[in-house]
Design brief:
The structure holds two protein chains of two kinds. Chain A is mainly β. Helix content of chain A is 0%, strand content 50%. In chain B, strand 7 and strand 8 form a beta hairpin. The chains are: A mainly beta, B mainly beta.
Chain lengths: 113, 110
């Protein structure tokens, strides 16, 4: 069964450092997403990406965040200067088209120290 | 905005019993999806129910949708220890993203 894969599974970084979280969405999917889940809280939408550009972003997705699809398979989330409050599980997701089920990766647990 | 809200927050049942959890939402939806999350792990898609559907089944799972009440329920029948997890509803209001509720934590006791 096709799946969304994320790397790394866990990343520890110093405050102020840049991190890049990587995702390989399902190959024939067209819409890509990043969500995050702070420990014990709800899953929150960060950004959606379609046709090589951001479709929508939440208020969480400020200037410190960026996304990129550098080639035909990878989808990355970059945080330029991490803060302690960026510590969370980050999930990548993809969908084939509007109104279809979203498939999520296993997540990257980011710990900012 | 986050509009799915699950009830109860936590549920503890004996193996073999049924588990029912509910989700309420505020605005019209295109579809509603249920996900399972084992502790600290990824989100596993369970069922998608569209706004024009009232009930769907998948194995031991039954999902209902009442758009007039803006609510959905997830029933797990004949629960097993492996069903211990958090369950989330997520609504798609047609803007191609999901809004998640806070989840119901289900513990199945052996």
């Amino acid at each position: 069964e096709p799946e969304v894969t994320q790397t790394p599974s866990h990343q520890v970084t110093q405050m102020g450092q840049e991190v890049i979280l990587r995702c390989v969405p399902i190959s024939n999917h067209l819409y890509f997403y990043w969500y995050r889940q702070i420990l014990g809280q709800k899953v929150e939408f960060l950004v959606s990406f379609y046709n090589n550009e951001i479709s929508e972003k939440s208020e969480i997705f400020d200037d410190q965040f960026s996304v990129e699809r550098p080639d035909g398979s990878n989808f990355t989330l970059k945080i330029r200067s991490t803060k302690l409050e960026d510590s969370a599980m980050y999930f990548c997701a993809s969908i084939a088209g509007p109104g279809t089920e979203a498939f999520f990766g296993q997540g990257t647990r980011l710990t900012v120290v | 905005s986050q509009q799915g809200e699950e009830d109860p927050q936590a549920l503890s049942i004996q193996e073999g019993e049924n588990a029912t959890m509910n989700c309420s939402y505020k605005t019209s939806i295109n579809n509603l999806q249920w996900y399972r999350q084992n502790s600290g792990r990824g989100l596993v898609h369970l069922i998608l129910i569209r706004s024009n559907e009232r009930e769907k089944h998948s194995g031991r799972l039954r999902v209902t949708l009442d758009t007039s009440k803006k609510s959905s329920s997830l029933l797990i029948t004949a629960s097993r220890a492996a069903d211990t997890a958090s369950y989330f509803c997520a609504t798609d209001v047609g803007d191609y993203k999901l809004s998640f509720g806070a989840g119901t934590t289900v513990t199945v006791r052996a």
